[in-house]
Structure prediction request, 860 residues.
Amino acid sequence: MSSNNVYLIASSMVRVGRYFSKSYKDLVVDVVNELFSSVGSIDIDYLIISNVFSDSILEQLDISTILTQELGLTPKPALRVETGESSGLTAITQGYSLIKSGIADTVLVVGVEKCSEFPTPTMNKHFIKFSDYEVESIYGLSVVNEAALLMKIYMRRYGYSREDLSSWSVKMHSNALKNPYAQLRFLISKEQVVRSQVISDPIRLLDMYPVGDGASAVLLSSKEGIVNNEALEVVDIAQATSQPLNLREDLLSLPATKIVFNKLLSRSKLDLNDLVIEVHDSFSILGYLILEELGLVEKGKAPSIIDDLDNVNLSGGLKARGHPIGATGVYQVAEVFKIMTTGLGDIKRDSCWGLIHSMSAVDNNSVGILVRRCSC
Amino acid sequence: MRLSIPRFWRKRFDYYSVRISECLDCGRKFYPRRSICPYCRSRNVKVVTSRGVGEVLTYTVSYYRLEGYEEVIPKVIALIKLVEGPVLIGELVDVDISEVREGLKVEAVLRRLKSEDPAGLIYYGIKFRPIVG
Amino acid sequence: MSKGLSVGIVGWGAYIPRYRIKALDIASLWGFDPQLVKSLNIEEKAVANVDEDATTMGWYAARSAIIRAGIDVNEIGAIFVGTESKPYAVKPSATIIADALNLPNKKLASDLEFACRAAGEAIRISLGLVSSGMVKYSLVVGSDTAQANPGDVLELTAASGAAAYVIGPKEGSVAYFEGYYTFISDTPDFWRRDGSPYPLHGEIFTDEPAYFTHIVNAVKGLMREYSFKPEDFDYVVFHQPNGRFPLKVGLELGFTEAKILPGLLNPWIGNTYNAAALIGLARVLEESRPGQRILLATFGSGAGSDAFSLVVTDEVKSKVDKAVKVMDMLRNKVYIDYGRYVKFRKLLVRV
Prediction:
């Protein structure tokens, strides 16, 4: 049986983008082939697929079996995980649990999403499904509207102008320039953010994630040294849910995210400035709120530190790396793995610790994992 | 026929008026109506029909293009505090963008939420509009 | 004088959508002579928003009527919706409005169709139901998002609006019915075939053989049966397809302009079909004094007219401010251009 430890031993991904000529199967085959070519042939015990819209877009249920067949991995057991936008990180926690419990020694986690199969209004119909259909989505309310309401409250409470809140997007695009897997690899200015198309005032196009396809894979194992790569240990995982926005005491709080951070950070005295951090910035306002909830900066001050931030969303975040919904959490982990080991393109950090955060909608279902370089 | 009949029909009273819950144990009132209090998990909860009157706390003008909702773009979406206390997110209608403001007094009105096609079902539900007079 | 009726209006409510389009804008788009607009005495018409229909507008008016009535809704034994723009050809609007207002399941409910006078007929039916004791209260709704073929002269006036009345015992009513008279005949002045999006009409044939003949016969019938003279009435409210016909028919029947004008709203809201005369009546109730006598005459193509005589009671004053007033809704307006009108009324084809 296994040890109690869980290691992250390899990762792979394709650049987030619009793959009109590739199916979801093609993308998955690409990343799994790349993963196995980097580590050699390893026997896995379980395949976990993170995917949100398989039945909405791909007309496919039991997608994990279909992919197991496509990958020639039968008769390995497989399952699909879905917790909205945080599915990818939830999938990692499920892989962690399988190993931790001794059910599996090696788990392949693959995140995949095809978001460019339909035109925008149709995709948006699916994107609003993260909210309660019977209470919100039936009225045509979407997460972008909730984020817009929060952004207005934030601007009013702390006295920010619209332009003040553009720094996040500028920074993310700057980071993404160095990430070979990022969807938006170009610089933008604050002025471009403020002048971009209004989606839900004050949120503009350049405040939100782009629509893209993606696939990413990570290999989790109970053994640290089965491949030549340096490995990361998954030290802890945390997950929490919260009531919808309108039932929260303070609209600018992220109660589930707070619980996740408290749990992950309580076990060790970690220097937040020395961590490699990836957070779920589907909308720039959420990026600020997450950093404040993390305690990296006091409430209301996040926009003022963004320009100097050099350890958060080095990938470019959801804003610029992209947000292939069910695959996103797996991307975050795959990227942190590379940043802390072989390098993500030219992005490399010697930090001992990495913190990855994901959430669905505005903090509905939030997940975090804490990783440590094995050599530390 | 893409719109479900029973899914809407069984909840029509929730869509035709603003129904909130009052927890008889902790005293909190909340929207949407539920049988379990989200604050104290009490099942000792009663349903109350709100007067449907409230005020705008904040709002956003949405240009988000959504299949099935194309007719109402741009759309004003507001965080509304009901006079009974609960807060909800709702759509504001019959108001020009230049007229929306925080503190605007609004009332619940019955409107079409969506219909699938000229031959299909129509979903009716509550939206909000400024109080007239 | 009365035929033993002991029935009155217990509560009333009206609804006028917020948006207006100028008749001259429509006229200039389709090349109508501005003189035509002037001769029809029409300034502008009310346009329902894109998410409104006869059901939603009727709901609003009915809610105000119930609030003014101040009654237990469980005592409402009937609901009738008079409309010629039913959102569903088959499926009653009455049941939607009733459930949305939490009316009891034990009641009569029907949508009635008789062009613009179905709601007038619903009032007559309600007189029978209430006076016979079959129901305590009956809710009558007249609501229309009137259709007009784009470019047809009808488009200058076809408008959206609703009115609702709770009919109940004379005791406690704001106005009680003294008499009624209905006159109908097979006169095809205006019709809409099943499946056709717009009605067709006989132009000038809608005038003398239809509107005038039926209203004159109904009103004269009422005056004859109950021995009324024109001087007995303080207000007269007619169906109002345009701003000219009601004045013409009123003067012809011997009423002064001063008695017609308070209930004549067509110049500012257009022809709201089943709600046209009934919004006029609401406006009159809101400014009337106890003891005043009102003549209401509906008209529906096809064709028929109901004439009613009503006397205002002391109760009216306490009810006026309990819900939104017609004058408030007349003032609460935003002008739209033909483009937004087309969008609101879904006159273009989207796929």
